[in-house]
Amino acid sequence: MSTWREEYQGSAEAERLTFERLAQDMMDVQVKAKKHGKAPAIQRAFHSKAVFSAIDAKLTFVDDLPEEFRAGFAQPGASYTTIVRFSNANGYGQPDYKPDMRGVALRVKVSDDEFHDLLATNFPVSHARNAEQFVAFAKATSGGIFSKLAGLVQLVVKFGPSEVIRMLRNVTTARKRKVSSVALESYWSRGAIRWGDTLAVRFILCPAADAPSAPEPSDKDPGYLSNEFARRLDRDDVRFELCLQPYVDVASTPIEDTAVEWLESVSRPIKVADLTISKPNSGIAEAFTNARVIDELSFNPWNTTDEFRPLGNLNRARKSVYDASSAHRHVYRWRTETPLRNRVLGAIARQGFLVINRYIEWHKLSLRLSLLNLDAFRYVLREKNLIDTEVYEAPPTARPVPPSSVDETVRQARTYDGTFNDLSQPKMGSIGSAFGRNLKPVFEPDQFDNPNPVEVARELLHRDTFIPARSLNILAAAWIQFQVHDWVNHARNPLGKDDVIVPLPKGMTWQSSVGGPREDVMRIASNVAGRDPVDGQPPIYFGNAASQWWDGSEVYGPDSKSANLLREGPKLRLVDGHLPVDMRGMEVTGFNESWWLGLSALHTLFAREHNLLCDELRSRYRNWDDERVYHTARLIVSALIAKIHTVEWTPAILATKAIDVGLSSNWNGPPANDWLTKLGIWLLDAHALTGIPKTLPDHHGAPYCLTEDFVTVYRLHPLLPDDYCFYNHANGSKIADKGFLDIQAAAADDAMRAFGLRNTLYSFGIAHPGAITLHNYPRSLLALERDNEIIDLSVVDLVRTRRRGVPRYNDFRTGLHRPRLRSFEELTTNPADIELLKKFYGSIDRVDTVVGLFAEPAPTGFGFSDTAFRIFILMASRRLQSDRFLTVDFRPEVYSSFGIDWIANNNMTSVILRHCPELASVLPRTGSAFAPWRPILPNSTMPSMTGATP
Predict the structure, then answer these.
(1) Direct distance between the N- and C-terminal alpha carbons of the chain, in angstroms, rounded to an integer
(2) CATH number of the domain enclosing 177
(3) Domain of 197?
(4) What class of enzyme is it (predicted)?
């Protein structure tokens, strides 16, 4: 007997990527089956209609089991409870009298820790040679008649006429034979499986030789096969024999080509076990009840042990493809069909805008053209700039225990660590999941210190004179840090372990730790690697120490232990309306690193909002326990924060009409009275017609994650001023002048309690943040103490970006589909900056990403560059679109009717006024709460009211 082996198409990883694409295609087949089969919901892609099921059949191995077939659970006389499901092969759930193949699925229970799924159909060979043929054929032959005709043409182009004819002949032959009883059919496995250490086999489930005959097939009864099986069981047990065909050689019994039949003349079937299906103790009625339970199961040949794992390309694909199909059916994953008009007209529009943008920048177009252009940008970025960096199993591995059903508690509440947002991939976006990429990383160790980041920071970044952003207030600066702490956190090693060593300019020294020596190098704490390098990959992949979802984790904590310490019943713990402090004087909240008074104000505000919501929910839903109240309040607060960021903060910092309308449409859909814009979107992107919260989750081809490129464009430290003035909100009188270091770390709580939330918010509301530009990096961040480490954050921003493999600026912008710059003069018009850039970089291609983003002139009204904006339009929508709780589960059943109304009717202004009503007169009447507030003139400058002339 020859030795068998598997042969991968390319590599195991290449196959995995192919299988993921095929899984998406199979979900499309399910969508078509629902549409054209008139099914009420997504069903199995195949074998959707159960003919008969049994929950307690017995699989018993023969006493004289040949030695070569004894492996694992397959031992002489061993008997196991087995679930059995007979089915019609079609995905439409059609009547039993329709021409079709039949199938059987077995789940053999060896123990609570070991199961084996065996799947077979009543035709000895597959029509497809491999997984790609199988899925392509399924996709081509699903849908209506025109869809099938077009699909067959595509099959001919892809595989050639002879292969298509062979597949059609095979399927036609398999389906045309009438079946009188599923108890009298033989069922062959699709491909081979491993059997023990050395064997590869295909298996056949054959009816017992003495099985009674059946009446002629009915041509009227849609359930005749079910009824016939039930009558048969009423008379006696139904028995099958499990037979194995051993591998012989690659030509006659191929492992990889499932379209070749293993002839019995070449490999004689050998009986190894009996399958006995008995009448349920409580009668046939119980069998039909059990069928409903069994129908919810997801059979997969990879539910087994390594000794019995599936073999061959088609089988290797079945793990991911079947899992995706099952998740789709169980409403764990979603797939929506893109209308034909969108596919055709959208492609034409994108090509048109590609030409237009060569001559006119998008923000200089008319409003409606700008909106459609932005939609085209986003489509291209989704197609080309979502790179998954997680490491997955390749090749697939066996799993002795099938995936369990999802716990009901995680269906209606966010988990603390971000797991189970995507029910089909529970770890997606959770703590520890990898940062992805928008651009292919560039790892250049020899360029880490070229040019010297300390000199670059000193000459190009450091603030000489404060440059204000006059369209914003300081709350806008605090807000983005508040959000970033929810989204991203690169865990750091303690200083002294794998430090990043940065050489200093000649004659300069640095003290890297409190009380440490001064040295001629700067030591920076290194990031904790997300994984060991794989296949020689560079060490540039990191896990996120925060949940990547928009879940308010900066307020609520990253895990159950932290979250529970912050709670008192359903409420967040506050002391006299303020956050509690620890022994160091630091305010206690979900995330308090890089802490300062701006963060203290926002954390305090939303902690109070949470507690108020708990009271509101308790008064309306008196039968709710503390957990339901807490988690619902958290959902409401998190969604309200997401809404504020989407429709208020972003249009404030990107102050153009197109962004205002576009971001509002992201949440609410296009304006109701703007029929022309709605028509354009209907023609090009129908999924954008309703607002993301009314759509289904969509990861757009790559599992959800935030990216290293996203982290880079949110290095917005110039927003922070160095100096702050605090005023009385009631009369405008000055309370205090403070530097940033006076209101950060433990000093923040003292300042919050001294000034109060109202005065703090007012003082920030009337003051400007810094502009995001060169020469405006806060002096306060140039020697900042953090966890016993002393850092120059301007240097850290450059060093981190280089060492994480983010491409340099010119490659960064061209990777985001912007024209490549040929000279420094195209980057900036400032002569002094041009000279500095030439001095440090020599070539425009060597400019640091952070430096380039700050140097690039921003479009009118924009607070940051158009290049950074490309990352934003991709990831801002993605944070909403991928999140189950901001799409399909953004509904009253989860949030409560009160919660949905609360989110719809509130914004940043109403949150502030709810907790600080005295600020009503100073907040902008029509603008965002992140726009400058109205300052109150101090009383001493006001004329006397007595006899005064107004």
Answers:
(1) 107
(2) 2.40.180.10
(3) 12-329
(4) oxidoreductase
